[in-house]
Amino acid sequence: MSDSAPSVASEPVAPVADLPSGEPIPPPSAAGALEPITSANEKKQQPSPAALAKALYASDAFLARLNKCLSTPTGIDTVLLLLCYTSKFSASILGVLSRSVLQRSLREWLAVIAGSVPQGATTAVVVDSKTAAAVAPAAARALVHAKRLNALSTLLSEARTMTRLWALVGMYFWGKGILGKALAVWRAKRSNSSISEKEQQEQLPSTTETAISLLQFSLCVALQVLENGAYLSSKGVLGWQPARIGKAYLWSARFWAAYVGIEIGRSLALEPREKWKEDSWKGNLAKNLAWAPLTVHWSSEKGLVSEMVVGLLGSIPGLVQMRELWASTA
Questions:
Q1: Fewer Cβ atoms within 10 Å of its own Cβ: the N or the C terminal residue of the chain?
Q2: What is the dihedral of CA 265, 267, 270, 274, to 10 degrees?
């Protein structure tokens, strides 16, 4: 601004329309008066029919593959496994973060209340869900979502347990196949057939592999019988007492831990090095390495790891199996 103001009488007053702006104001016209004013959202281009058709095709292809995944008991269990442990892991993260925010906010809120109370006076503060929602609404909502995700994880876990009630039927045919191969190995050793040693190794498992398979089969049968009995008793179908139910679950997990340990050792010691580069071998090892600490955790009466670790480790087999299942439906 200059030191001396211009003379008002020497300069005419400009009309309002001539005030300086970013762009000159066009004079009103009949066409302009009738032209509707459009907002920025209305000016956005609508999706083209080709884009809509592409989106519909992608959705249809996704649902078709998902339907294939859910068309077999193994596929259903894989989807439930992934959703069960990812929801548990997400619930744990939301719970930890929301509780941390709520505790910090409540400390600040209580400090304000303490400052407003006269010295020497006493007061009682009741912290309930309404108070928490008023102090940190976002954290309170996250805590509600964490509770719902935990409920979903519990529901999916029970659904998987129910579908395993008839797993013994599949184990029967698994054991039948193992015994058939064991008998074939025994007959091949006793007979003087013309099959070469290389051909026998390619067609029949070794004695060590057969013994390991029989041991793993026995462990799986034992753990499934115990789990079925404990679950049915918890629902009132069988008459096991609560103490027996708890022991059954513990020993079921211990048999599972033994199976996982044997499977890890078999993969590292008996599988040829050429298979170590295959995705199937890597996926199988990753799954069992993730299950190993969890089975030990469930084998202990007090547990060893937190729910967040359970969700994280349990999500690994779910992701591996879901990846394999999704690739098989292509």
A1: N
A2: -150
Q: How far apart are the first and last CA of the chain?
A: 74
Q: Are 143 and 95 in contact (CB under 8 A)?
A: yes
What's the pLDDT tens digit per position in 62-86?
999 999 999 999 999 999 999 999 9
Token code pair at residue 47: 């999706």
The CA distance from 239 to 243, in Å, is 12
SS3 122: coil
Structural tokens at position 87: 């929801």
Task: Return the H-helix or E-strand segment holding 23.
Answer: none
Report the amino acid identity of residue 107. R
Long-range pairs for 298-307: beta carbons < 8 A, 24 or more residues apart: 298/249, 298/250, 298/253, 298/256, 298/257, 299/250, 299/253, 299/254, 299/257, 301/250, 306/92, 307/88, 307/91, 307/92
Q: How far apart are CA 259 and CA 99, in angstroms?
A: 38
Do the beta carbons of residue 260 and residue 295 sit within 8 Å? yes
**Whether the Cβ atoms of residue 206 and residue 156 lie closer than 8 Å to each other:** no
CB of 81 within 8 A of CB of 321? Answer: yes
Instruction: Give the torsion sign (CA, 266, 271, 275, 280).
Output: negative
Whole-structure pTM over 0.85, yes or no? no
Would you say residue 145 has pLDDT above 70? yes
Taking Cα atoms as reference points, which of 282, 310, 312 lies closest to residue 296?
A: 310
Which pLDDT band holds residue 15 (cuts at 50, 70, 90)?
Answer: very low
Contact status, residue 71 vs residue 290, Cβ threshold 8 Å: no
| DSSP secondary structure letters along 231-243 | HHHHTTSS---HH
pLDDT one-digit tens code per residue, 45-63 = 777 888 888 889 989 999 9
According to DSSP H, which parts of the chain are helical?
30-34, 49-69, 73-116, 129-135, 137-163, 167-190, 197-203, 207-234, 242-269, 279-299, 307-328
